[in-house]
Amino acid sequence: MTPVRKLERREFLKLTGTAGAGLLIGFNLSGCNSQPEPLPMPTAGPPTLTAEPPTPTPMPRPPLEMDAFISISPDDVVTLVCHRSEMGQGVRTALPMIIAEELCADWSTVRVLQAPGDEAIYGSQVTGGSGSVIGNYEGLRRVGAVVRDMLIAAAAQRWAVNPSVCYAENGAVINRETGEQLRFGELAEAAAQVRPGNIYYVPLKDPSNFTIIGTDIRNVDEPLIVTGRATFGLDVRVPDMLYAAIARCPIVGGQLGGYDASAAEAVDGVVQVVTVDSGVAVLANDTWAAIKGRDALNVTWNEGEYADLNSAGLRQMMLDLLQEELDQLGEGEKNPEAVSSIEATYENPYLAHATMEPMNATAHVRADAVEVWTPTQSPGDVKTEATRQLSRPTTVHVPRIGCGLGRRLDNDYTYEAVQVSLAVGAPVQVVWTREDDIQHDLFRPGSIHSLRAELDAQGLPVSWRHIVVGGGGSADWSPLDQGINPRGDQGYRVGTTTIRTHQVIEDPPILTGAWRAVYNNNNAFATECFLDEIARAGGRDPYEFRREITSSRQKLAVLERVAEVSHWGSPLPDGWARGLACHNTWGMSDVAEVVEISVEDDGAVRVHRVYCVIDCGIAVNPRMIAAQMESGIAVGLTAVLKGEITFENGRVQQRNFRDYPVLRIDEMPQIEVHIIESSRNPQGVGEMGIPPIAPAVVNAIYAATGKRIRRLPIRAQDLRES
Question: What is the rounded CA–CA span in Å between residue 183 and residue 151?
């Protein structure tokens, strides 16, 4: 697989729907696993085209995962294709910004298209783990730089000068000696005839010369969103499309017993009733008829062995597993420097994703091909699986996603649409109601954490033990490597460390999955609250204590900045208090947050202000970084103040926002986001605002009331005055 290829015009036009002459080029970097290491590149001043250096002995290098297409038309329109899913995190703006920066494009002429699902062309298309920018930054810069130099070469040929005389800027190539300019559109056809240079040797800009990266650019979809013209999954319409609502078993591990479709078929608009793996699908000419038809179904369920499942029993199972771990460890050998010890247990509940756009997908299975429209975070998986199971080519379109939160990494709802379409021989849109979404979610697993630390005479930790037990059998639940551990991922000095790989309840078979920031949330709640307990036990200020034991420069920087901007230690209004927490998510970005809260006499917690500081390397789009921190804080506050999924008689007890509430606009605190200036390559942003918020709130509650909360969500009865 070559790193650079000219596209067949028919291939690109099919993708973009554009026409006319110009430059069409694609870069497939996903297969370049053994390219030579790049030689040092010139970075100062405007970029120039230089002779390609001799090829050194090939050395292994990590793959650059992406395939970016660039089109430059004679009318100066630059079309860039984004291969990751847009769900509000801004990736459809940020990734094109990176290409446009090195291309030296005029941003006002840039248009962005969403790539279809096809990992054979684009490499990994999984949008998750806050990895889209960090995983594509270098590759996308090189893509833009190669095309820039092709345009420079075309201009140099037209002026009959050496390419070193020319440079690109704001959508044009400029002759240094004469000041003449040629717009990219004027050069596009000629540039298409230039042989691309080696992508690993192309000169890149010095970040000090960036004109696009680092600026506040509005989301490219914003005009469509504010005018109601953006196409989300629920907006997809296909000729002769039917709508389906599916009755699913409400009991964990239960199965379909039987059903009588006569009442459903009598509902006006209902056209057919079929069974699929997940239950009974009612198809109709509109969503309302499909839902009413489903409600009219007479369905019986085989409840199975988990009909008596309840949350109290689940919690006891986790506590029993935790005790088994503690019994195996025993007391252990005491650290000779220790003069005291402290221990605590923290609990996190099961959570639903509750995305603003419920699950949905549209599919049309024909005899010779499959076409799918699905708001998914993993479109390549859909294409691969549908092609494999149905033995026919599959095209996957990715509309804008109305919130993902990790739920759309799994494609159960997409495969439902494919199954129903296959069964009825027509295009079908499967629509989940809010009740479907909450009751049949892939839940974030609950967990229980046991922590113990030995302290020296100065109150500093000389040993640390952290054991975690998770419930639900989630494949996305990973061993505890984002708490404090021997490798120092969290950047704290805590002495000798014992981290026990967690136990996970595989039985009962509660469906679980990734929830924004995944286990970082659970681990941050436990570790950052426990650090606060250690500090308070030694009579230390929580901020000064963290500064003293911090071993990471990035962590120290965010801690010091958040203390500065929040005026840590200064007086607050009566009844208010501050709390602090810090976390590094996925080994990428450090985030520190300080909250200001008050607790009412009835136990209600009010979060007034949040100060958030992030070190995420080079800030590609500061405006969107701030938005991601704000959204993460809102999601995290919902979880810490309100979020809990409970089970009774094998059933999820919550059904809608009335009993699974989300943070309302009048509950949203004032938020200040500060970004540490950095020369590091960009790090992750999408999930990083969530993990610190729960421990910051809980630590503030202790500062205000002297009551330590160790079980989420916060319950008013735990805080009411006695």
Answer: 9
